[in-house]
């Protein structure tokens, strides 16, 4: 199918498919009124105003564009990123554009695909409050600290750092802080930003010569909340700017709260100066594996979806079978609610089992023993394969016990198979290692990781988070 034959319907369709794939907020942030798309017979040109944006979009969105173009045009297109003047990008709105094809021919194309969105203000997130967060035992300290921080009763917690794996509730608590503080207009300027927002705004300020205005806006904030700070790790210039922003906020008496997926000291390529300043505040670990918190969450979230109460045996089934994070658990409950609405049946055990069977078992990832051992070695700063060799110190023995415990949890291998993998140990040694970790978890033991220390439960969450990030 020649693209030129179907251009009449393509702009709206390509725009809709692309927004559906990457999300409306990301589209507005990176493409709205900044990028122009031109279609040729075998290519899709992406015109951008500068080299920085070109490199960013090429790295982050090329695969998405290829997928959307293939879906709309039923053929594979080459995606070509080019730098164009802003006036040239805007000129595309006024009429036809000459498209240069690879074979040297020229064709007169209709108005190029404009993936620009309406100019209405960006919709603010509908933040949940503290009352809808179900902390359980392990996350209660983070929840209480965040509440006190938002109420102004914990100024000694400045800066506040929330860290833990994806889906444990970090963004929820930052949003709850924002919502609580915004109720009092007298507190002045309050800003919530993701690391991506901060990066984009800083780069835009540099390009337009508005860095002083950017710094004035954030350095004098009464409260600055930065979500997913770890995404600044590969951006040295942005990190240095954030360091100045941190100093400005704290120097002028403002409050600062950030979230990361790991302890600041263990976040790779994060400036030591940033880690130092974050470590000078209150660092609150958060975890996913909290059965009491999960039980409260399941019951509370279900009440939003269905008026029928969820029986206790169904809740216990979900707690036993499902190992994903809170976001995945939300998706599972929505799936069950949808099945109940379609069939008009009560949410009993049979209905939940049928609705969730494929979802539950596909959500549980079985990592290999080698992957688990490698992730534990990475966290403990041990050489790869080090836990399979004879161990000479007690600390290494703890990490091998942890690796054995996780192999039993996530791999399901037999005691004998795990023993052979970890240096030809007998099955009694494997059983003892698993029981050792279970006992240490009950005792809420804190383990040492170089210059940092964290609860053993959080170390386990950190290993699992690294495994998910590495292998999906």
Can you tell me the overall shape? globular
Strand content: 5-15%
What profile does the largest beta sheet have?
Answer: 5 strands, parallel
**Average pLDDT figure:** 77
List unreliable stretches of 5+ residues: 1-9, 86-122
Count of separate DSSP helical elements:
19
What would the CATH topology of the largest domain be?
Answer: Rossmann fold
What is the level 1 CATH name of the largest domain?
A: Alpha Beta
Q: Helical residue percent?
A: 40-55%
The strand line-up of the biggest sheet is 7-8-9-6-10
Radius of gyration over C-alpha positions, nearest whole angstrom:
26 Å
For the terminal residues, how far apart are their CA atoms? 36 Å
Structural class: alpha/beta
The number of domains is: 4
- Within CATH, the superfamily of the largest domain carries the name P-loop containing nucleotide triphosphate hydrolases
Question: What does this 3D model show about the protein?
Answer:
The chain is α/β, with parallel strands linked by helices and 472 residues long. The chain has 4 domains: 3-109, GMP Synthetase, Chain A, domain 3, CATH 3.30.300; 130-285, P-loop containing nucleotide triphosphate hydrolases (Rossmann fold, 3-Layer(aba) Sandwich), CATH 3.40.50.300; 291-363, Helicase, Ruva Protein, domain 3; 369-471, Chromosomal Replication Initiator Protein Dnaa, Chain: A (Orthogonal Bundle). It has 19 helices and 12 strands. Strand 2 (43-48), helix 3 and strand 3 (78-83) form a beta-alpha-beta unit. The protein is globular. Mean pLDDT is 77; it is low at 1-9 and 86-122.
């Amino acid at each position: 199918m020649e693209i030129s034959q179907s251009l009449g319907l393509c702009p709206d369709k390509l725009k809709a498919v692309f927004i559906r794939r990457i999300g409306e907020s990301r589209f507005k942030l990176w493409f709205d009124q900044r990028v122009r798309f031109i279609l040729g017979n075998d290519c899709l040109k992406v015109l951008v105003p500068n080299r920085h944006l070109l490199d960013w979009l090429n790295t982050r969105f090329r695969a998405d564009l290829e997928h959307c173009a293939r879906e709309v045009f039923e053929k594979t297109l080459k995606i070509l990123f080019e730098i164009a003047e802003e006036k040239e990008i805007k000129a595309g709105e006024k009429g036809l554009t000459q498209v240069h094809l690879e074979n040297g021919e020229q064709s007169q194309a209709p108005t190029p695909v404009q993936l620009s969105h309406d100019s209405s203000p960006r919709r603010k997130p509908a933040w949940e409050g503290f009352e809808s967060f179900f902390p359980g035992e392990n996350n209660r300290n983070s929840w209480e600290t965040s509440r006190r921080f938002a109420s102004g009763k914990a100024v000694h917690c400045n800066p506040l750092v929330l860290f833990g794996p994806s889906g444990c509730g970090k963004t929820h608590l930052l949003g709850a802080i924002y919502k609580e503080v915004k109720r009092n207009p007298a507190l002045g300027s309050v800003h919530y930003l993701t690391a991506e927002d901060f990066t984009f705004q800083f780069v835009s300020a540099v390009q337009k010569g508005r860095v002083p205005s950017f710094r004035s806006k954030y350095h004098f904030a009464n409260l600055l909340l930065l979500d997913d700070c770890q995404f600044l790790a590969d951006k040295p210039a942005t990190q240095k700017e954030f360091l100045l922003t941190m100093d400005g906020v704290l120097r002028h008496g403002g409050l600062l709260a950030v979230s990361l997926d790991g302890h600041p000291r263990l976040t790779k390529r994060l400036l030591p100066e940033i880690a130092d300043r974050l470590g000078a505040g209150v660092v609150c670990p958060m975890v996913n594996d909290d059965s009491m918190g999960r039980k409260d969450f399941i019951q509370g979230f279900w009440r939003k979806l269905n008026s029928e109460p969820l029986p206790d045996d169904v809740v216990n089934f979900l707690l036993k079978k499902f190992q994903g994070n809170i976001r995945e658990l939300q998706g599972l409950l929505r799936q069950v609610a949808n099945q109940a609405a379609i069939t008009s049946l009560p949410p009993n055990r049979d209905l939940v089992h049928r609705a969730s069977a494929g979802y539950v078992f596909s959500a549980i990832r079985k990592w290999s023993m080698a992957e688990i051992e490698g992730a534990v070695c990475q966290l403990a700063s041990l050489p790869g394969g080090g836990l399979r060799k004879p161990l000479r110190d007690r600390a290494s023995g703890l990490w091998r016990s942890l690796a054995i415990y996780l192999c039993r949890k996530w791999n399901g291998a037999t005691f004998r198979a795990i023993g052979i993998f970890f240096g030809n140990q007998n099955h009694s040694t494997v059983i003892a290692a698993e029981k050792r970790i279970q006992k240490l978890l009950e005792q809420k033991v804190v383990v040492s990781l170089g210059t940092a220390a964290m609860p053993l439960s959080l170390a386990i969450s950190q290993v699992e988070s690294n495994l998910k990030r590495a292998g999906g």
